Amino acid sequence: MKLITRDTDYAIRALRYLATNKERIVPVAELVGKLKIPRPFLRKLLQILNKEGLLESSKGQGGGFRLVCSPGKTYLVDLIEIFQGDLKLNECVFKKLICPNIKTCLLRKKLVGIEKYVIKELRSITLASLIGEAV
Fold first, then answer.
1. What is the CATH number of the domain that holds 102?
2. What pLDDT is stored for residue 134 in this prediction?
3. Is 83 within the bounds of a domain?
4. Residues 6 or more apart from 102 whose CB is under 8 A from it?
5. How far is Cα 119 from Cα 53, in angstroms, rounded to an integer?
6. pLDDT in tens, 63-92
7. What percent of the chain stands above pLDDT 90?
8. Mean predicted lDDT score pLDDT of the chain
9. Does residue 108 contact residue 102 with C-beta atoms inside 8 Å?
């Protein structure tokens, strides 16, 4: 199990770079060069972030992407949910069916507690904190 997938990792890298250049539109070619992320893959991620309202895109010569979300109000857990869906440590599925022991399973109770703790900690991490900006 990966807590953060490649999509989420690359999206965070792109958002961090855009957050440090928030006063200007950053061309995709610059992002590709600085972040070493394959262009088609990066464009797909940037389009998703644009659709989610975190970025603004400009087309044509001088085009690119600009951060429009507040780094202090953009949380790591939100990015994980955009690219990975709900954060679950265990889905309690056995042979494509909900496990029959779901209500009495002691391991599930422990995992639910860990899951809540992890989500709480992830909710405390903002884009601003990842670029060292005071919130």
1. 1.10.10.10
2. 53
3. yes
4. 92, 108
5. 22
6. 899 999 999 999 999 999 999 998 877 777
7. 64
8. 90
9. yes
